[in-house]
Design a protein that fits this description.
With 464 residues, the protein is an all-beta fold. Helices cover 3% and strands 38% of the residues. The longest helix is centred in the first third of the chain and has 8 residues.
Amino acid sequence: MPRSPSVRTALALLPSLWLAGCSGSTSSDDETDTKGQVDTSCLPVALGGPDQSYVFGSLVSLDGSGSTDCDSDDSTELAYAWSLVAAPVNSAASSNDLTVADDPAKVNFQPDVPGTYVAQLVVTDERGVESPADLVVLTISSGNTAPIADCGGNKTAAVGERVSLDGSASSDADGTVAEYAWALASVPSCSGLGPASVYDGSQVIASVIPDCPGTFVVGLAVSDSISWSDADYCTVTVATDNAGPVANAGESGTLSPCAPAAFELNGFGSYDPEGAPLTYTWSLLSAPPGSSATDADFNDASLPNPTFSWDVVGTYSFQLQVSDGTHTSAPDVVTYTFQEEGDNRAPFANAGVAQSVTFNADCTTQSYAWNCEECPVQDVELDGSASSDADGDNLDYEWSEATREVTFSSRTSAITTAYLPAQAATVDVTATRTWTIDLAVRDCADVSTTNVVVTYNCYGERTY
């Protein structure tokens, strides 16, 4: 599965390379060997604290007081050097923006844009010996949820009739909708209207007057003064012999880290009222920061169910329009969010209920001695199909038994047959053997295990 490297991984080598190019710290005579080299067996340790996440606008506090000196318990004897070694590309922040707080080990920092920053701490002990650098990754989120546009539903009208457009159902999770932007996204070929042919296009209630038969597509985007929403589209169908088709891009959702690198979209819910065959046009509306995905990553954007190859975790939005050869539908938008690997939920293993089989072996007597037939190999069906995964991931199965006396028709199927070995029978005696059979269930990242107990009862039955 494609994954973008973490900032910590990408920057982990920088401090060591930088230090390798320095002239080195001075030290007293008792900290050098006979060749004058620093004794690296006793270096201070810089501890800048855990990685942190903040909402943009918050003051970041960095605390290196957990740093230690190898030959002293007093961290106040250390000198602390904080620096900023990475920032978002649109940030002007530098090490000069780190301000010392009320403790020499602590600094404050005010990020200037959302994104990922990396701070570095190096400490120096009283001998002048420097520690290796410690990195702290700072994730600054915008703290704002984009609003959701709602253009109010599809309309029907006559030529020249004013059609009211109502965006009052639009919403914002963080507060209120502050701005509205209406536009005509498409018009029939007979129309002379353009994108701006919407009356009161910046108001919550707008209107349009269609000038010929056909399907007019109106789009609405809203803003909360920080972020703009994705557009919502409604159709205005004006009396015509042919009703326009309807696009359905499927249900939005969240996909687990086990989702395939090329996942399938589903536009099969699209339809034409007259049953005319449809042509499909998919496009990529938006991708997460750091993604290089484009429309070229569809295997075939004209299919009702194309696959799309994603490259980094985050949220992707896709648009579908369909045509019946005369009219093109309003766009329908679907959004998929691909989770980080750490968000994966392990599967649940279920090997079914305990099972028991019994075989009565014939025992006959001759010269006052009893001879019994053998209890033969018995087969038991094991069913692990009740195993599940909360993320809906595909699962792999593996059956096993520690003694290896039990064999399987298939070790890797959800349902398999276990073959219990034959055993000797004794007259009037029930010999019981029990095996614990293990089942491991895996998705792409995690494994869960369980077991089921099977019992074989072998009874020697007198026959006269």
